[in-house]
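Task card 7
Instruction: Convert sequence to structure tokens.
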Amino acid sequence: MSSEETWTDDPAGINQRRERVRIETERHRIEGLLTLARDGYRSRVSDVLNASERDFLTLTDVTVAPLEGGPVELHPYLTVARRHIVFAVAAGESSEQRDHRSSPRRAG
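Output:
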């Protein structure tokens, strides 16, 4: 999967894209797809992170890895509180991430 993909079946006619992001909290590394506007307002990861009216970020196709080690979990959906985010970056899918994603166990 690429780090960015366009949704073409958007019923409202609003062009959106999903960008893979990596977020770290004090205890976890979280990677998933963040939905952004295709252009303009809220089209950048920083726009969503700095939106004062939003306390949470919602990600899809998510991996959660404890920073201290332990099993990696996969989740179809995850919401993280902005106040717990230490840093966030756009994350292209590297070969290390693909290898890491092929072996985690599913939480459930």
